[in-house]
Design goal:
alpha+beta, three-stranded mixed beta sheet, 5 helices, 14% strand, elongated
Length: 134
Amino acid sequence: MSDISIFSRMLEQAAASAAPVPARPKVIWLSAYERQPGLYVYHVGNKGWAIAGLFTFNLEDARAAAKHLGQICGRPVREYGPPAAFGRQEAPPAAVVDAFWYMVRLGDKERLRAWLAARPDHAPVLLRLLEREQ
């Protein structure tokens, strides 16, 4: 279980205050940027909101806080930032995808396995493409 107590307290204060609330956006943003290689900083909320000034280095905490804020505001949560910050892989270049489909059409499973083994960064994404086609 993650500790999002600081986010929870900010949300409770915001919900209880009679202060004017900024215009309600269509979505709640969970944004990330890379502070140093492999270390991401996550912000929850929208520009101008007090909670947007808080940050965390923990993706689970940020997602939990964003979900909670989305429930309070009745808005969906969207993620913005580098795919790696959210545990997603970047899409392989178009040339790699084209070569993959060429290898699939050849029908040689051993050759396809060897080709994918030579591209471990792109193999999971390419295999998901294949699963969607079948």
